[in-house]
Amino acid sequence: MEYKQRTVTCGELRKADDGRLVVLNGWVHRDRNHGGIHFINLRDRYGITQVVVGEQAPEEVVRTAEKLRVEFCIAVEGIVHARPASMVNAEMATGEIEVEVTSLQILSTCDPVPFLIDEESDAKEDTRLRYRYLDLRSNGMQKRIKLRHDFVKAIRDYLCGRGFYEIETPTLIRSTPEGARDFLVPSRIYPGKFYALPQSPQLLKQILMVSGFDKYFQIARCYRDEDARGDRQLEFTQLDLEMSFVKRDDVLLLMEQLFGYVFERTMDVKLPEHFTRLSWHDAMNTYGVDKPDLRYGLPLTDVDDLAKESTFGTFKAVLEAGGCVKALRAPASDTVAFTRKYITELEDAAKVYGAKGLAWMKIGSNHTLEGGVSKFFVGQERALIDRMEANEGDMILFVADQWKKTCNSLGAVRIKLARDLKLFDPKDFAFCWIIDFPLFEFNEDRGHWEAAHHMFSMPQAQYLDTLESDPGSVKGDLYDLVLNGYEVASGSIRIHDIELQKRIFRICNIPDEESEVRFGFLLNAFRYGPPPHGGIAPGIDRMVMIMAGQSSIKEVIAFPKNTAAVSPMDDAPSYVDQNQLDELHLIIKQPEQKG
Hints:
Helices cover 28% and strands 24% of the residues.
């Protein structure tokens, strides 16, 4: 088809273009027919321009305009006219002008759309994903995909300017399962053998350090065969980064400088020069989570001593069993009433993390305590109110249990309170580092120790002599970057000593024979002068989601899966032909029907 190719985009024209002959290509965003005069909002990636088919338009143009429907793709030629001051549309970048159409061509038609293309779609998620090519035309999705592009470009610009090499690692690798299940790819050439898609380039980037490439990064695609839950995707993108001859503070400083550059470049937001640092224990003890949102306060407060002096038997029993009692202040609100129904909602949030209940009391006038468990704290009113820095109308919430369960449960209540009471500005960005993580955690179901992050993280030096005798107390040279309550990056200084690496494997119930089979290629590389090295891997999907003010990573991924791990647009996963299975020497075993 021959058509008139655009000379300008739909976001380009201004008052200074008055009288100019232009050609526009785009989609019909809206078409208003006012007594034979068509006012058409024409849209492309760059913006919207109003074009007008007026009374003086050629008859052929008028006939074509009568055929137009929403989302028809068209070519328009016409004269730019400045609008009178009284008719300027201040809400449109091109609102000072309109284009009087002299030629109009339909490039393609469009079936009735399942939802209107607007700033944001109000269609259900599966409908949006089924017609993702339409959803991506919306202004909101266009802006978010551009933000993602700008974010990644800024990362590349900064790191390349700092002497990093961008090196691609393979997506068909040896299966080294550790944590999530691998996606397996059968080999046609070698029947019975499989490749795996990488959960991360962890071992390969360490081998790049052995190879002498001391500053590596990659915008890496990663894959984890996990059950659908929450807002995770089977495939995701991370900035993978590794450096040689560095210590923890070198990595942390680089990230602070990188994201300072990226946020200023892409969002015009200036971040602090350095981010807050919290130990894992302090983060858990103060905020109840190891990824605290620091845009608001509401710290958890230890009240063991006051609970011990109270007459509340439940608190006393927990303390005698070695547990703890923590309290949280819920500030009085004009928008949320602290009714019994709302207190039950808070209690439900606590019970998700194992709390048996949520005790409470309210602050009355003249430093009095009212309702809930207040009757058990007679004589301690002033001490408790001062400890909690509470005011009239506030509420104090308590959880009593073992330390970690208490922290997690009350931490969940803190998060719900902040959201419900709108205690933070969604446009703020609060970064913090979490350091001094436990290196190991005990798996009760399997009966052995496991790596809290992964098995290639360096223990802190003071624990090297007690690794085997007291794994539970060992802290690793680990660090997480947290933004607005989300973990957005995780990293560590790596083990580069082959004997130390084997010790870690053994603690994690992987004997030497098995470690040679699973990780022999890494151990072999470590026999040839590996340098000290460390790195980090920020998640690109999650960071862009936060920057865009969204709560789902699907809003910043062009073609995501739904929460059932299905792509409604192309119906993946799908069955394949028998001849494909035969070529791969595969037989499908259907799951047994229950009942």
